[in-house]
Amino acid sequence: MRKGLIAVGIIVLMVGLASSLQAGGIINKQNLSADYIRTLNRNAATDMADAAAFNPAGTAMMENGLYVKADAIYLWKDYSNQMPSSSPVFNLGTLESNEPSIIPGFFAVYKQDRWSGFFAITVPGGGGQVQYNDGDARTALLAFGYAGLIGLPAATAPSIADQYIEADSYYIGYSLGAAYKIFDSLSMSGGIRLVEASQKFKGYARNPTTGQSVNVKIERTDEAFNYFLGLDYAPIKDLNFALTYMSNTPLNFKADTRDSTAALGPNSISSRVGWTDGTHEREDLPGYIAGGVSYFIIPGTLRIEPNFTYYLEKQAKLEGSRFHGAGNSYDVGATVEYIFNPQWRVSAGYLHTEIQNMESQNLLPEAPELDANSVCLGLVYSPIERLSLTLGVERSWYESVKTGATSAASGRAPGGTQYDKDVWAVGFGIQYRFF
User: Fold this and answer.
1) 295-344 per-position pLDDT tens digit
2) What SS3 class is residue 429?
């Protein structure tokens, strides 16, 4: 029993697990707008109000006026844990979550002469839900380790017990800032962002005959401010350089925990994790440096934009043991945009996401942090001068990872479990310039 308890002692170490899928680091996510879905590269944006989130200094390069933009991203997510066929205890086939997610975004920019002010509501981390109706690798270990509490033999409990796990994670960011054009070719920006973070989890393993169960429900919340700085340089009409620095957001999560094994004291699930009711743990939203170059190969018609985003994860305070040695992750990609006329433009983009130094035994079974390659297509339609409609479609391919033999000891998955993710996204946005 003690050995089993140790094996699943970290059963609830799954915060941030409902990640919003596309570009990003271990925690950060960058799919903040519909125009990101149609390009995958927005670090040098000066054409739409979502520049407030991707290139804040670029808002001073926009035309005068008040811009208001509302976006929504719909995600189809197929996540799976393929259990090890070599194990007589954990050979449970493939356990899946197909829960979709909707990611909203709102942006407002007021530009007048050399000044601009802007406000944005985004989801810079988390941003979705996962739901494994038949359990996953983690609940299989839960059934095995606590088999005695649910009245089943340990060797058969993972295949007999009813299992379920779900979680959602949302980091809502409220950004406020301003930019100033020092010269016609150079602008600078600064601002603050409030991040309200919420992570929720519940899961169980239950004897289908007697109803005996072990279950845990946890909610962790916190909020914190950070700041950002930006620079935009356009030496000639058709060339634009942009650089943005986002500082670390110091989140110190407080746990609100309900644990059916609490009577076991130090052997309870929440005690072994360190998330007993009322306890705190630092898990910052890391800062990043984002750069981009926009260049019109054919003036006014054909534009390219390469991007690079570097996540400062090693500079963040991440107290969870699974983060030890991890970071710094990065995104690199490029987009091509063709402008037919003032009414129509189309785009295509590519992005590679590289997650740095996350060991296989530390990946979250519910939403594993995997390297990815993404492509997209999209268009912008402007039926009248002040109105723009955005549509983008994106596909991400994630590189499968199989856990090592030490994974069972981490309490997250039996050794030999294979993690896979497959994601489609559609983004729609509407922008209006009032004057």
Assistant:
1) 999 999 999 999 999 999 999 999 988 899 999 999 999 999 999 999 99
2) strand
What are residue 51's phi and psi, to 5 degrees?
-60, -25
If you count DSSP H runs as helices and E runs as strands, how many of each does the chain have, helices first? 8, 18
Q: Supply the DSSP symbol for 318.
A: B
In the structure encoding, which two tokens stand for residue 47, read together? 């054409």
For every residue of 286-298, DSSP letters joined together read --EEEEEEEEEEE
User: Token pair for residue 319?
Assistant: 């107290």
DSSP of 66-123, one letter per residue?
EEEEEEEEEEEEEEEEE--TT-TTT---EEEE---EEEEEEEEEEEETTEEEEEEEEE
Q: H/E element holding 163?
A: strand 162-183
Domain spans in the chain, listed from the N-terminal domain onward = 2-433
Q: What is the pLDDT of residues 362-389, one digit of tens each?
A: 999 999 999 999 999 999 999 999 999 9
Residue 165 pLDDT greater than 50, yes or no:
yes
Q: What are the φ and ψ backbone dihedral angles of 83, each rounded to 5 degrees? A: -75, 155
Give me the phi and psi of 382, to 5 degrees please: -120, 90
Residue 236's CB: how many other CB atoms inside 10 A? Answer: 9
Distance of CA 55 to CAs 14, 50, 60, 62, 83, Å?
A: 32, 8, 10, 11, 43
DSSP 264: G
Instruction: Report residue 93 as tokens.
Output: 């086939």
Q: What is the DSSP string of 312-348?
A: -GGGS-B-SGGGTT----EEEEEEEEEE-SSSEEEEE
The token pair at 282 is: 């630092």
Q: Classify residue 420 as exposed, middle or buried by CB count within 10 Å of its CB (0-12, 13-18, 19+).
A: middle
> Which residues on adjacent β-strands are paired with residue 135?
none
Residues 206, 150: Cα–Cα separation, whole Å: 6
Supply the CATH classification number for the domain 2-433: 2.40.160.60
Residue 431's DSSP bridge partners are 69, 388
Contact 248, 316 (CB under 8 A): yes
Return the SS3 of 161: coil
pLDDT mean across residues, the chain: 92
| 124 token code pair | 């810079």
CA–CA distances in Å: residue 138 to residues 63, 101, 221, 229, 323: 52, 22, 23, 41, 18
Let me know the angle formed at the C-alpha of 292 by 291 and 295, rounded to the nearest 5 degrees: 160
Using alpha carbons only, what angle is made at residue 167 by residues 426 and 279, rounded to the nearest 5 degrees?
135
The two tokens of residue 378 are: 């999209």
